[in-house]
Amino acid sequence: MKDITSVLVIKLSAIGDVIHALPVSYAIKETYPTAKLTWVVEPPAYDILKDNPYIDNIIIFEKKKFKSFKGFLKNYGPFNKILRGDKYDASLDLQGLFKSAAIAWSAKAPIRLGTCNMREMSNKVSKPVIGPHAEGHIVERYLDVARELGCKVEKVVFPMNISERDAQAAIGAMEQAGAHMENPYVVLAVGANWPNKRWPTRFYARLSDWLYNLKIIPVIIGGGAMDGQLAADIESMAEIPPINLVGKTSLKQLAYVIQNAQAVVGGDTGPVHLAAGLGTKTVMVMGPTDANRNGPYGQLENAIEARRPCKYCWKRACPKGLECLSVIHPEAVEEKLKKLL
After folding, report:
1. How confident is the model at residue 2 (pLDDT cuts 50, 70, 90)?
2. Which of the listed residues 118, 148, 178 is the one where a domain comes to its end?
3. Which of 58, 124, 291, 326 could form a disulfide with 303, with the two C-beta atoms 3.0–4.6 Å apart?
4. Which of 171, 177, 273 is nearest to 219 (CA)?
5. Helix/strand/coil for 243
6. Are residues 207 and 273 in the same domain?
């Protein structure tokens, strides 16, 4: 592979997926330390990349502005001008969809690589990389693309720069919610975009009470109206309401809370993947997706999969009307936590 001086990474969303792709930034700079790395991302995941020491430039792609024909005509030119502000030696399409393929095509890099499972004709723009981990964890599938570019990947690093301001804000949010961060606590990531990925609130309530009995503080995290409702349900069912941080932190502040926790429990969702990336002990309850691909990276032994014949269905909601993760009882999570705490 010739010397690489400029690389474009396209990984737009969702938060968990962008977290999974973070090691690619380190891998590129590990091999090509002087290369300029530009990353295209959608607004919700921007904060994950901000202040990453291995990313030189971030371009925000606001998908909603391109949804109408009028919006496309208005915004394509300015976006393309920003994108073409650099000449890239290579582009890595880690999204593998039509929208990311359009960005890769517009960037005009002579080397265009993508993941092993590209969709929506994106494989016509970028070469799919069928690497040694094509059937393995998604983190390694992304790194296979970096390996194809010549990256050595001697170690896997999830860069996450948390400022002192964010750390102090996180400490303040915890104190305002009724807990001191120096006391042992376990984070409960109760939400998920897919209903099928959510563990029942009644089980979180039982787990919360169990943690309090161990003199460990349960802390609920999340954001948005749905997570707020889930937290309220848990508070109403628990003997002692857990600490509720839903909607009270930014993503970087949340990262600091997670980083200092004894453990994190939740489904296949962004904050839980963030916990694994930060090296926090992580217990993940899973059903529609499998641990081999999406489990907590580096600690797959802490994944608990639903014992159902229909697991790995990859359905947002159960077509059979089942509560997917209800077959994973709190005792199973408690057994995992006993070994970690």
Report:
1. low
2. 148
3. 291
4. 177
5. strand
6. yes
